[in-house]
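Title: Prediction job returns without error message
Component: structure pipeline
Severity: low
Priority: P3
Assignee: unassigned

Description:
Job completed but the reporter wants confirmation the result is attached to the right record. Sequence as submitted:
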Amino acid sequence: MNGELALVRPARPAPNKWLITVSITFGTLMGALDSSIVNVALPHIRGTVGATIEEITWISTAYIVATVLVMPLTAFLGSFIGQKRLYLICLVIFLVGSALCGLARTLPTLIIFRCIQGFGAGALQPTEQAILQQTFPREEQGMAMAIFGLAVMIGPALGPTLGGLLTDTYSWPWIFYVNIPIGLLGLVMVTAFVPEADDLKEAARARAERARKNFDWQGIAFMCMGLASLQTFLEQGDRDDWFNSPFICVLALVAVFALAAFVVRELTAEVPAVNLRILRDRTFTAGTLISSVMFAVLMANMFFLPLFMQEMLGFTATQSGLSLLPRSAIMFVATPIVGKLYNHVSPRVTVAIGVVLFGIGAFLESHLTLQSGESNIILPMLVQGIGFSCLFVPLTAASLSTVRREEMTDATGLSSLLRQVGGSIGVAAFATAFSRDTVRARGDLLRHFVPTRPEVVFRLQQLRAGLAMRGLAAPGTNPALAMFHFIALQQSTVLAFERAFVLQGLCFLFSLPLLWFLKVKRGVAAPEHLVVEM
């Protein structure tokens, strides 16, 4: 009896889930932050590297393309080197890329270094999501996804604010250097506090052994070609006038055929690099698709509002970033509350509330005018912040609720990819609609500009008198007429923004029927708690 007892291994203490959470959140937060922090510094970077407006956009495109290439391969790569080791390696790559970006002084080198940074960032978000799902018990899955949602949603929201402050106070390289101390802290904490479960390591070894014998080179090649072409098509299409550009047409053809070949290959390969078979899980597929549709509208809104404040209201990058802080602040408060309510309120109800709140916020945004100030932006920001919290947490938790433990990284990689692609589609689609609405609204306004109409004559007289008082009425010119056309262009842009915000709200409300497909079985057995071998 004593001999048998001597062979029993002593129970090891359970890992501290909160230390694990804090440790792995650093990487996700930085990766999400860097997707938007660069945008406010682009004018300063342009001056340093000597690039045109069209050329400088490749800095953002390169990062996004590199990120989406790694996301679906997270589980595949993790099977060879381990989930924790993959996270650490990718975090090191991200930090090296950040340091190199800060040192770059030419456009080609900056684009290359942004690719390196993106390759590192690609696996951070799916790996954190998988680790959180595997660490927290089922009854706390809502809280786990609330923490993940804070990093994913607040990162892009804080990016413009932090980027503006660093650029205005120091210089643009600091938007990259700021990652280094935070990332080093994350490296130390992940190494010290994040374990790997025996069952997950065993499943990874088995998958890696099979993958070595049947390495899916074709699937990886088709995926890289398809996703790189698709993402570049979405990022550059509006700038190059879509299908009027031969380059964009080639990208579209390559994306269609390569992605079709990729899907066929992954569904027939003995050991696929990307496990598309997980899409047979209806709950996962429904939740992920709904998240992608809603993420498309969310990212478009997060793109348009700062643009309106800077282009139409004359805000600086720092001012526009600070005006968005109420949304981040209310999300920081509301997201954990939504996480706690996940087990008590149906995800359909919570998501529906989030959809309605976002629609109300978009409606309030559509009433912003050239006379609006920071105080007018606070209310829609607060409403949308609560709406965002109600959307992301239940959608993410519900979509992963029926996924098997050993397939969690496959699922999080796919869901992260589809959210990213959905966001890019949303920005591209709304940007194109915005450009066309601006032209149409200007045409509608100028159609009513008839020089003989009394109100037009009166307005021109007012403009001439105002210019004459300032000594700006030069002989032989008609500056009042030029100013009239400028006002028409300005007002047409405001109308285009109004339509964009209304359309975003309507798209969200029209997505409500999709919630019928979000069926979560509360009685499904929970994944086992993380078993640790220290």
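Comment from assignee: result matches the submitted record. The radius of gyration is 26 Å.
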